[in-house]
Amino acid sequence: MSSHTMTLADMRHFYGELKDDSDSQKKFRDYLLRDTWQVEHFERWMTEALHEKLPTEFQDLVVAFGKKLGFEVEFGTYGPHGTGYDGIWLGEDGTRIVIESKSATWPGLDVRQLGNYMNELLKKFPADKVFGLYVLGDDSKMQVLANQIRGSEFAHRMRLILHKDLIGLGNIKGVANLSASQVSNFLVPVDAINVGELVKLVDTIILEKRIAEETPQPKPEAREISERQVATVKRSELKLADGELIICPSKPDGVKFLLTYEAWGFIGIKRTPKYLALYVSRPYSEVQYIAEVDRIMDPLESSSPVPDPEKFEQFEPGKKLVVLKTGTIRKLVDPIKLGEAFPPVRSRYTTLSKLIEAKDLDEVF
Predict the structure, then answer these.
(1) CB atoms < 10 A from the CB of 110, how many?
(2) What is the pLDDT at residue 207?
(3) Which helix or strand (DSSP H or E) is residue 89 part of?
């Protein structure tokens, strides 16, 4: 973390004590919502807020952290007046999660308070879009609260999470580029009968990690073809003869390898397709590039366009390099979206005609 990042003590000295409808409250919240801050900054600040017993700071940190998870955030009030609740996270699908933070052990908590806030929202929004979430600073009363929720009328729309696990979810989102809707699937109650969505979400995280591990990176000194030099084309305008096509998965940074070397590696491949297409993983999740294949070769051959291939983590003896015909890389104006299937984690064969005609990847394979 940057050494110049202010501590909460610094902020309190600069802004003053946090009170509802005060200038200090506005400045503090605006500061937390800056795009500059990463998950690690929030982790440090939350830890400080808990250690120094700063419940108002902890409350605003929790609510503001929703932005790092992909939500729009609405701050509440510190005291019982005004909205009453600590904040709301608004998802891209209309989901509203009412946030209640608890920075320390609390006496006589009644879940009906959070439930009443939720009931007010239910007067305006669909029942399947309103949920409640407690974010706890410690686990000393977690089981007591969990039992209250379980035995209440809100059992199917209220959940709790430790702040450190919320930070962990922020890290997962960063690694797997989860959408706010996918994050919601972790935080709100899942269907007790059909848990398939949660299984698919975990699978997506695992598969995206595998794609990242398989993606080669060009060396910093390598020449890179600017995307301005790569022509764009609609699939329907590809004036190419039909033939076998291989689709290779890549994380976004892998595009640099493709453009730098006009090649793709390092993969297990035994036959030479006519074309290669590149599937770029989240946040895009689509087939973005296509090129004509020149040859398949051992990366260690002297004519390889990739210097020192053995220095790449993805290199393994026996894996091949797909060399593309010079100047044939095209970026698709109408890329092929993922669809309902899991993202591809290894190279797969199809045909150019299927790629041109498909509405999504489900129709390609």
Answers:
(1) 10
(2) 74
(3) strand 87-90
pLDDT greater than 90 at residue 3:
no
- Do both 78 and 175 map to the same domain? yes
- Tell me what the pLDDT averaged over the chain comes to: 87
> What six digits make up the tokens of 124?
């305006």
Q: Write phi, then psi, for 154 (nearest 5 degrees).
A: -100, 10
Across residues 111-139, what is the average pLDDT?
91
With 80 as the cut, is the pLDDT of residue 227 above it?
A: no
Domain carrying residue 347: 227-363
291 and 179, same domain (yes or no): no
Are the beta carbons of 118 and 96 closer than 8 angstroms? no
User: Which amino acid type is present at position 153?
Assistant: E
- C-alpha 3, offset from chain centre: 27
Query: Same domain for 72 and 155?
Result: yes
Per-residue model confidence as pLDDT tens digits over 47-80: 999 999 999 999 999 999 999 999 999 999 997 6
Burial class of residue 303 (count of CB atoms within 10 Å of its CB; 0-12, 13-18, 19+): exposed
98-102, 129-133, 142-146, 218-222: least confidently modelled range: 218-222
The reply to whether 209 falls in a domain is no
* pTM score of the predicted model: 0.63
Cβ density class 113-126: b for 16+ within 10 Å, e for less? ebbebbeebeeeee
Q: Please name the residues in contact with 258: beta carbons below 8 A apart, sequence gap of 6 or more.
A: 250, 264, 278, 289, 291, 329
pLDDT at residue 194 in the model = 57
Distance of CA 215 to the CA centre of its chain: 18
- Strand stretches in 214-353, DSSP E: 231-233, 244-250, 263-267, 275-280, 286-297, 320-324, 330-337, 348-351
Helices (H), 242-338: 255-261
Task: In whole angstroms, give the CA distance from residue 290 to residue 329.
Answer: 6
